[in-house]
Amino acid sequence: MAQADEGHESRLLAEMLTLAHRLKESEDALLAGQYAHLHARVAALIELRSLAGMTL
Amino acid sequence: MAAPSIVPALHDPFAASPLLRRFAAVTREELEAHQLRKVQALCARLYAKSGYYRDRMDKAGLVGGVIDSLDRYTKAFPTSAKADFLEDQKDAPPFGRRLGVDRDEVVHISMTSGTSGQGQEIYGRTQRDVHMLGYLHALPWYMAGLRKGDTAINCVPAGGMTTGGWGPGEAIRILGATPFHVGGNLSTDAKIDLMLKLGGIHFIYASTNYLHTLTETLLARGIVPREAFPDMHGLFIAAEGYPLEWAEKIEEHWGCRLQEGYGSTQLNGFGGSTAAAGVFGDKGARGLIRLFEWEHLIEIVDPVTGAPVRPGEQGEMVVTNLSVEGSPAVRFRTGDAAVFVPWQECGGAAWNAIECGMIGRFDDMMKIRGNNIWPSMFDAAVFAHPQVGEYKGRVYTRDGKTEVEVKIAVAEHQSGLGAEDRAQLVQSVRAAIKERSNMWVDVCEVPRSEFQGFAYKARRWTDERQDGYRL
What is the average pLDDT across B55-81? Predict the structure, then answer.
């Protein structure tokens, strides 16, 4: 069950990273940095789980 | 007085942000409808989650926290002041009953500086609040021209438990610029050495007083800021008033536009700024701080009656946070005094404004010989003289009469001033004070070294009158 949850979280994070990446491409200069910040946070969450093989 | 022509105009900050363009295009009606929705949600949430605000709403007849109009809200919702928050904290430490979120949602602390001497307010902020803390610093700096890839010098001491300690770091990060948080870590000379090593610097954030100190020290070292830092495109100040003569000199020395913001712990950052327009208005007038009214509801009221002041009048700012979750300020009496300029007189956008360079404190007001005197009056008179580096004032009693003493120090870069010029300067400052305050005061010159520790947030005045009443 726990493994299934972890897989689900990994998929969610991967989806979020894709979405955040799309936001990061915004041409709105006020928002672009904030989206980049969001993207980096999601990327960090994926990275910190990597040792346990939780990334996709 | 017009802005010095040496300073290039900023590119339109709204051009690069469709979001800001939409904010600028909303009508007053749309803005107030947005404010009402936010106030309704805030009051409903606080009625459920905050004993402090629930009690106030019940007493005011706002049963269930239901607000049907902004008019009813501003007339019925009781104001709070610093003393109320301190009492609340004392009754239910550490955050008081006004917190409004679950205790385990608090991930960040903001405290007021305590310079009033009454005590420090404590605010518990959530994860979302921390982002907003950064955004509410980033927003005016973006408008002032700070961009991804820029190098920014933050002269305000970083970290600790103040809003001003954390906001700049979060702001510069989410704008994608590179920060050097030099405030509090390095002496002014060491800051300058670092800035010279870095070379390409684009933006400085400092208190009014510290920008003055930094500029004065640069000039004393024979460094012309606009030559040493040719990439600089924005200077942003907050916290203290200043005369326009000073602002003109600053822009001339740095070769770039000076911008100003109004912010506070209670606002979780800035509540307004000069955007890209600078501190100079039309025909010698002061510029405008446009209020971020979609983030805060800011009333400017008569401090005695509580009624809204008329255009052009000075009033006390009463603030309500529209986007803060933890420890929100709801109709909080700031004690800050500002001149109200309605949106119709601001030349575009539906945001109200206050005059820049003139924000004072109602509780700093001194009653001297029957006159209402604000330190900002003296600031304007003294700093209209570019030869003056700093000053301090003292109100005291001598032989039963109230006396005022002003000590001035000549700026370091003016140290070559001769005795005759110094005597003339003292007389000129005295006359300028008389002109603005209608009082003759004692003015004398003292060494610049008497002003150590004045760099960040000047408290220039002491009132020793009670000491003079000892029998």
Answer: 97
Confidence of residue B470 (pLDDT cuts 50, 70, 90): very low
Per-residue pLDDT at B153 exceeds 90 = yes
> Which of the listed residues B362, B381, B413 is the one where a domain comes to its end?
B362
Could you give the C-alpha distances from B228 to A2, A19, B195, B233, B354, in angstroms and in order? 60, 43, 9, 13, 34
- What's the domain range around B118? 1-362
B272 and B396 co-located in one domain:
no
Which residue in chain A has the smallest CA separation from B138?
A30
Determine whether B194 is exposed, middle or buried from the number of CB atoms within 10 Å of its CB (0-12, 13-18, 19+).
Answer: middle
Asked if residue B263 and residue B146 are part of one domain, the reply reads: yes
Contact yes or no for B328/B42 (Cβ under 8 A):
yes
Mind listing the pLDDT tens digit for each residue in B261-301? 999 999 999 999 999 999 999 887 899 999 999 999 999 99
CB contact under 8 A, A28 and B17: yes
CB pairs under 8 A between A and B: 35
Asked if A40 is an interface residue toward chain B (Cβ–Cβ < 8 A), one would say: no
Distances (CA, A) of B359 to B71, B196, B288: 26, 33, 11
Residues in chain A with CB shorter than 8 Å from the CB of B136 are none
DSSP SS3 for B127: helix
Residue-wise pLDDT for B408-423, tens only, equals 999 988 889 999 999 9
pTM score, whole prediction:
0.84
